[in-house]
Amino acid sequence: MSDLPSLLITSIPLTIGAMLGAVGRAMTESLTAPQHERFSAARRWPAPWPLATFVVNIGGSFLLGLVTGLTVHFGGGFGSSPIVAALIGFTGGFSTFSTALVDAAKPAVTAGHGQYRTKTGERLELKHLLSALLHAFAMVGICLAAAALGMWIGKLV
Fold first, then answer.
1. Where do transmembrane segments lie in this chain (predicted)?
2. What domain count does the chain have?
């Protein structure tokens, strides 16, 4: 029972951070919704590109990398602070790879059922699977680079 105060000192900021991250994600989604269709149409992707999910995962990866870099720089003591707990909660609520991969896979998986159609009305086929794979690999690659950049900047501080 003696760890209860310590647990509360960490879990309350973590919870508040997660709530703020979820609100930030919803706001990002609503702000990028008008650009979502233009971005997909301008690039002529066979399926809509999940722009909001892409933006939040890159931002979340960078922020978590930055927090990790700062923790390493300050010798690990920084990592147990309530501020870090709040930042980790925020990135967890703000970004989610499960949503990113589901967004990427939706058109390819449901193509046979005819739920998704291109602007010309054709059914989704191999090109939609390739688009889903491109999105998934781009998401992982760019988020990995963003996390590494955040860690590098955190170490410089």
1. 6-28, 49-71, 83-105, 126-153
2. 1
